[in-house]
C-alpha cells in the first residue's frame, strides 16, 4: 500500500475514533475525558496505519489527534442537539454504529475517509452558519 492509501486509512480510523467518542454528546469533564481518549486513539490509529506500511509514524500521531478532535467536536454538537430536541433515544447509538462502519470501510476501501472528511466539514460549516443566524433577529432590535 502506498502512502496515499495508508494516509486515507489512518484518516478514516482517526475520524471514526473521534466520531465514536463524540456520539454521546457529553460536555464538561466527561466530554473532556472523551475528547482526550479520541485524540489519543485517533493519533495511535493513524500512526499505526502509516507504520504498518513502513512509513514514518510520527506525522500520523499529530494528524490523527487533530482529525479525531475535529470529528469529536462536530459529532458531539450533532448528538447534543438531537438529545436537546428530545430526539430518538437511539441517536447516539446510531452515530456510534456509523463510526464503526466508517472504521471498517476505511480498512477495506481507504479513500472513503476523504468523503467522510468532506461530509464532516460540510456539517461543521452548516452548523456554524446556522448558529450565526440564530440570534440575527435579536441583534437588529437594538
Description:
The structure is a single chain. Helices cover 82% and strands 0% of the residues. With 142 residues, the protein is an all-alpha fold. The chain has one domain (3-139). Helix 1 (3-22) runs antiparallel to helix 4 (91-108). The longest helix is centred in the middle third of the chain and has 27 residues, at 58-84. The termini are far apart. The relative contact order is 0.19.
Write down the domain tally: 1
How much strand content do the residues show?
A: under 5%
Oligomer: single chain
- How far apart the termini lie comes to 60 Å
Q: Enumerate the spans where pLDDT stays under 50 for 5 or more consecutive residues.
A: none
Query: Shape from CA axes?
Result: elongated
Radius of gyration: 16 Å
Element order, helices and strands? HHHHHH
> What helical percentage do the residues reach?
over 70%
How are the elements arranged and paired?
Elements: H1 3-22, H2 28-52, H3 58-84, H4 91-108, H5 112-134, H6 136-139
Helix pairs in contact: 1-2, 1-3, 1-4, 1-5, 2-3, 3-5
Throw out a few tags for this protein:
142 residues; mainly alpha; 6 helices
Summed up, what is this model?
This protein has 142 residues and is an all-alpha fold.
Amino acid at each position: 500500500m502506498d502512502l496515499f492509501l495508508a494516509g486515507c486509512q489512518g484518516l478514516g480510523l482517526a475520524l471514526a475514533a473521534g466520531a465514536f467518542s463524540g456520539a454521546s454528546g457529553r460536555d464538561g469533564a466527561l466530554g473532556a475525558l472523551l475528547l482526550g481518549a479520541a485524540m489519543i486513539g485517533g493519533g495511535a490509529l493513524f500512526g499505526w496505519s502509516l507504520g504498518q506500511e513502513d512509513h514514518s509514524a510520527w506525522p500520523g500521531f499529530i494528524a490523527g489527534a487533530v482529525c479525531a478532535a475535529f470529528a469529536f467536536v462536530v459529532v458531539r454538537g450533532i448528538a447534543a442537539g438531537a438529545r436537546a430536541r428530545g430526539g430518538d433515544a437511539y441517536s447516539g447509538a446510531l452515530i456510534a454504529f456509523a463510526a464503526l462502519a466508517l472504521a471498517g470501510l476505511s480498512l477495506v476501501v481507504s479513500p472513503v475517509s476523504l468523503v467522510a472528511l468532506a461530509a464532516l466539514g460540510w456539517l461543521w460549516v452548516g452548523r456554524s452558519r446556522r448558529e450565526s443566524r440564530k440570534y440575527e433577529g435579536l441583534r437588529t432590535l437594538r
